[in-house]
């Protein structure tokens, strides 16, 4: 199949995409790399000077950096676990016959279509606000003290918001995978006396493994750069409780307008993202036969 | 592909061409009520100047600041009129990013602008931005609750009176909180309030050698007073409350006192929005007998970027939007209470305005009490009351605000927050080269 | 007897499913309801669910203040335009990955995906400078270019996983009959891959519609899409929940309706190779 002719054709057809992405990646990356070695504040033009690795030194020794690293991992990990677990639950539910299944499915996928900024604004102001929010009203109605979500459990609250946005995606992919499962296998297992739990662990879960890998990969890509939700709800605080790497880079480049420091942060984030990418690739290699 | 490209090109040309006749001004502005009103009334301007078309970019304050700063610093040239605050004007003027406003017209009456506001927008005797509305901060309180508790609010209260009264008025069972203050982190959020408060305690951001002062006693007093009164008498969730959250609390009758921007007065006294409209009293922001009150000074102002090729038309617009005639126009169309406050002396001499705006007098006194050139009790190397007019301040102020917000949320003690503020400010100032 | 048991079971499942569905949908419903309240009612506590004074004033005011249709149209042009161009570039690439795989195919694919992990804030200034020099600031073409590049990896990957399900022999047969590469892709591959292409198209329109960093930072007045429209209603001084809700409803509704109507097409190809 792989004749010399088709090899050449393959290279030809591949090149537009590769060239475009290479340009998109390399040109800004090269500029960013260059800026990262400069003292370069947007608000003080004309004072740029070469300062070597000072920007990196400051970014990496920033006490907020390790907090941000931890928060990034917690955010990605937390959302992944919740969406996959929730997604499997919802997929199993939607796979069963019940009245109004089509409508319930529409309700469940709806959050995926909402802009992140909008959902963050709605959750923060109209639901989680401890005085005027709906949750507070419910708590008061039940005679409880309203819980101050964004101050007392800031990271968990953000994980909750992001989970709400990505749950539909996980559900849809897992549901499609579930529906491709041969029902005869399940019936046969039932005949053999396997209980519901056994069937779930030994037949359904292995069947969903590939789908879970896909969900993990795609969501990780998007979750690493979660930003709007944090900017709108907590501004990275209180303290550094919800600062992730992306937010830290933002604070450097667009609050401080420290392009040098922000660029160094950007490069660090790129390195971290590539570590994650390598890790994911290994995982994919095992579960997806690409 | 080629045809598709040329089609796209033609479409773009047609799109741009539609406005090629007249001169088009791009105006970037904040989404606050007064600016929205200006946008609505702008048809009066375009009617008088048919050769000028206006394009509005209205954004939330922080997004707007980030957009226009990026644009002006990279000379992107997207805007002809910018809405900027007292913080940006001196920094941008120094970079020669703004055009001097020298074509405002003979009738503009620069002398009528309030001196403390005008001085912040002037460099070497030249005006670089024209104030659209100005604000300070003051105490808004519930007269009915004070009366019930047998308390009398003096016109110029002290911090100890405010703290006592707040504790006495608190009734958490009935969701009544003695005092609502900003807690949400940000240089323009909690730090605007806390820096101004610190001034009245004799604290300052930096000494004359740009060394951060968070390890000094006055800052400790400031923060412990703030945290103490908020813990005893503040609403839940205060660490995420900014202007709007507190406004909503006050308007729904949940705060006995609120210290915030003077423009809030026109919201809380508006019966269409506020449940407590007829019960609000006003007082100057508190002090500690050290000669500085804890009120800030801010003016949203209009300026023209040096890169704009439509400078004359832009100044024509600015002159209209910040003129006395504009104030009359708003009064005629929307009533005196909706006139943008805090920019012109003549407005405060106007009997009709004073009648429609019971808070006019205290707003004026508050604005006059703030002195951005000498904001603190001790000498400082910077200007600005609730900010430090250096480019690094936005980042530093926000990071310090995070630490104080965390202290308010109970995640660290006052001492830890101050230590962390001192450490991070020292770090940033060293990096920026202020501290050798 | 058995019938009754399954019916009772079905009833229980129905109740659970509807409860969960409504809980998940609730924030959106609440936003829509709030958009019909006055500002004072929007912050009233306890909040009223349906028994409030319904009003359309928020919608009239939003429309008066900003040109919704301009923003809407920009969103349409940007999301559809970037997706179509993305497809044009991605189809050939995915073809070669799926049917002429080499040793490096997997690496190339992973590298493409990894470009999506860069934090956009880190490269905003370089991109802004480039856009300024090419005169692309505040232009729809500029935004189409950026969004095409951002979503290209996802498009390539989705198409690749879908193409792989198609037996290579069919394409080979076409080639034997003398079809050129162009004809092979256009007339043999694409018709077979319609479901995959449809869901790729839909998913990317959704992603592009909701992209809020680049669209906000590279636009001003002419090219600003609905994400910028939202930014002009969030957190002004004063009460804003009701107006923000109205603006949010207007920004979200088109894409939500599109998603609902096309959910079958969206789901059919949304497998990323997870289904054998």
TrEMBL record, chain A:
InterPro entries: ABC_transporter_permease, MetI-like, MetI-like_sf. Keywords: Cell membrane, Membrane, Transmembrane, Transmembrane helix, Transport. GO terms for biological process: transmembrane transport. The keyword Transmembrane applies. It is found in: Cell membrane. The chain crosses the membrane at residues 12-35, 64-94, 106-123, 155-178, 208-228, 264-284. Residues 69-285 form the ABC transmembrane type-1 domain. This is Sorbitol ABC transporter membrane protein/mannitol ABC transporter membrane protein.
From TrEMBL, chain B:
Residues 1-22 form the signal peptide. GO terms for cellular component: periplasmic space. The keyword Signal applies. Gene3D superfamilies: Periplasmic binding protein-like II. InterPro entries: Bact_solute-bd_prot1, SBP. It comes from the Bacteria. Keywords: Signal. Coiled coil: none annotated. It holds the Pfam family SBP_bac_1. Its main location: periplasm. It is found in: Periplasm. Belongs to the bacterial solute-binding protein 1 family. This is Sorbitol-binding protein /mannitol-binding protein. It comes from Azospirillum oryzae.
TrEMBL record, chain C:
It comes from the Bacteria. One of its GO terms (biological process) is transmembrane transport. Coiled coil: none annotated. Belongs to the binding-protein-dependent transport system permease family. SUPFAM superfamilies: MetI-like. It comes from Azospirillum oryzae. It is a multi-pass membrane protein. CDD domains: TM_PBP2. InterPro entries: BP-dep_ABC_trans_perm, MetI-like, MetI-like_sf. Pfam families: BPD_transp_1 (PF00528). This is Sorbitol ABC transporter membrane protein /mannitol ABC transporter membrane protein. The keyword rRNA-binding does not apply. Keywords: Cell membrane, Membrane, Transmembrane, Transmembrane helix, Transport.
């Amino acid at each position: 199949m792989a004749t010399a002719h088709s090899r050449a054709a393959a290279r030809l057809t591949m090149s537009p995409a590769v060239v475009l992405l290479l340009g998109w990646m390399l040109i800004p990356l090269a500029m960013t790399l260059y800026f990262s070695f400069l003292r370069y504040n947007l608000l003080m033009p004309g004072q740029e000077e070469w300062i070597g690795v000072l920007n990196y030194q400051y970014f990496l020794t920033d006490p907020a950096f390790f907090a941000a690293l931890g928060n990034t991992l917690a955010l990605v990990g937390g959302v992944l676990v919740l969406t996959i677990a929730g997604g499997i639950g919802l997929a199993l539910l939607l796979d069963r016959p019940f009245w109004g299944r089509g409508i319930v499915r529409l309700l469940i996928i709806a959050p995926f279509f909402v802009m992140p900024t909008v959902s963050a604004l709605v959750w923060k102001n109209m639901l989680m606000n401890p005085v005027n929010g709906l949750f507070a009203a419910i708590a008061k109605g039940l005679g409880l003290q309203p819980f101050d979500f964004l101050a007392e459990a800031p990271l968990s609250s953000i994980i909750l918001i992001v989970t709400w946005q990505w749950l539909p995606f996980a559900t849809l992919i897992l549901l499609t995978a579930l529906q491709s499962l041969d029902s005869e296998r399940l019936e046969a297992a039932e005949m053999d006396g396997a209980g519901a739990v056994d069937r779930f662990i030994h037949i359904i879960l292995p069947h969903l493994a590939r789908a879970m890998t896909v969900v993990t990969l795609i969501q990780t890509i998007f979750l690493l750069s979660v930003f709007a939700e944090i900017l709108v709800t907590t501004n990275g605080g209180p303290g550094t409780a919800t600062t992730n790497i992306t937010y830290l880079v933002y604070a450097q480049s667009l609050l401080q307008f420290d392009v040098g420091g922000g660029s160094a942060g950007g490069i660090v984030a790129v390195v971290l993202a590539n570590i994650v990418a390598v890790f994911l690739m290994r995982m994919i290699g095992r579960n997806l036969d690409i | 592909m080629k045809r598709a490209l040329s089609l796209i090109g033609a479409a773009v040309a047609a799109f741009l061409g539609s406005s090629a006749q007249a001169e088009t001004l791009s105006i970037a502005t904040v989404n606050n009520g007064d600016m929205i009103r200006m946008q609505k009334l702008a048809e009066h301007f375009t009617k008088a100047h048919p050769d000028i078309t206006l394009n509005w970019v209205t954004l939330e304050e922080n997004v707007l600041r980030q957009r226009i700063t990026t644009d002006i610093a990279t000379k992107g040239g997207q805007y002809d009129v910018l809405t900027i605050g007292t913080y940006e004007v001196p920094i941008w003027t120094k970079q020669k990013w703004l055009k001097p406003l020298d074509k405002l017209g003979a009738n503009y009456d620069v002398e009528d602008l309030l001196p403390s506001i005008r001085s912040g927008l002037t460099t070497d005797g030249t005006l670089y931005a024209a104030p659209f509305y100005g604000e300070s901060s003051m105490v808004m309180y519930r007269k009915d609750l004070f009366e019930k508790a047998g308390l009398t609010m003096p016109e110029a209260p002290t911090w100890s009176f405010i703290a006592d009264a707040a504790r006495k008025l608190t009734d958490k069972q009935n969701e009544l909180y003695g005092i609502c203050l900003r807690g949400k982190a940000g240089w323009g959020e909690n730090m605007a309030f806390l820096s101004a408060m610190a001034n009245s305690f004799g604290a300052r951001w930096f000494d004359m050698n740009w060394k951060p002062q968070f390890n000094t006693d006055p800052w400790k007093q400031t923060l412990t007073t703030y945290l103490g009164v908020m813990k005893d008498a503040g609403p839940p969730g205060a660490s995420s409350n900014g202007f709007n959250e507190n406004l909503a609390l006050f308007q729904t009758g949940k705060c006995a006192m609120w210290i915030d921007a003077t423009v809030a007065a026109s919201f809380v006294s508006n019966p269409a929005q506020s449940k407590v409209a007829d019960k609000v009293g006003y007082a100057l922001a508190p002090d500690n007998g050290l000669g500085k009150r804890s009120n800030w000074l801010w003016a949203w102002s209009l300026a023209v970027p040096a890169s704009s090729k439509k400078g004359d038309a832009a100044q024509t617009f600015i002159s209209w939007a910040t003129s006395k005639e504009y104030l009359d126009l708003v009064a005629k169309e929307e009533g005196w209470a909706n006139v943008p406050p805090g920019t012109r002396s003549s407005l405060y001499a106007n009997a009709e305005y004073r009648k429609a705006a019971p808070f006019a007098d205290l707003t004026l006194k508050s604005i006059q009490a703030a002195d951005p050139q000498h904001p603190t009790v001790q000498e400082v190397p910077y200007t600005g009351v609730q900010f430090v007019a250096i480019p690094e301040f936005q980042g530093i102020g926000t990071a310090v605000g995070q630490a104080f917000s965390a202290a308010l949320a109970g995640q660290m003690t006052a001492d830890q927050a101050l230590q962390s503020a001192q450490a991070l400010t020292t770090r940033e100032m060293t990096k920026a080269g202020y501290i050798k | 007897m058995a019938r009754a048991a399954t019916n009772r079971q079905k009833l229980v499942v129905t109740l659970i499913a509807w409860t969960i569905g409504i809980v998940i949908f609730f924030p959106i419903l609440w936003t829509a309801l709030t958009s019909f309240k006055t500002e004072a009612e929007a912050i009233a506590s306890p909040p009223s669910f349906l028994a409030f004074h319904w009003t359309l004033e928020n919608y009239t005011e939003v429309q008066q203040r900003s040109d919704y249709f301009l923003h809407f149209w920009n969103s349409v042009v940007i999301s559809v335009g970037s997706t179509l161009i993305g497809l044009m570039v991605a189809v050939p690439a995915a073809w070669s990955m799926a049917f002429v795989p080499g040793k490096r195919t997997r690496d190339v694919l992973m590298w493409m995906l990894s470009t999506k992990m860069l934090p956009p804030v880190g490269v905003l200034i370089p991109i802004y400078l480039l856009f300024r020099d090419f005169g692309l600031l505040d232009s729809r073409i500029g935004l189409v270019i950026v969004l095409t590049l951002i979503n290209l990896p996802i498009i390539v990957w989705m198409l690749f996983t879908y193409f792989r399900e198609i037996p290579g022999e069919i394409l080979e047969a076409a080639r034997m009959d003398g079809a050129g590469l162009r004809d092979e892709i256009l007339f043999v591959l694409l018709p077979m891959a319609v479901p995959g292409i449809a869901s790729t198209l839909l998913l990317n329109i959704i992603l592009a519609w909701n992209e809020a960093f680049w669209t906000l930072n590279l636009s001003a007045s002419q090219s600003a899409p609905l994400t910028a429209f939202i930014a002009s209603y969030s957190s002004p001084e004063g009460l804003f929940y009701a107006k923000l809700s109205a603006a949010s409803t207007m920004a979200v509704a088109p894409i939500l309706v599109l998603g609902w109507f096309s959910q079958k097409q969206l789901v059919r190809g949304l497998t990323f190779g997870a289904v054998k």
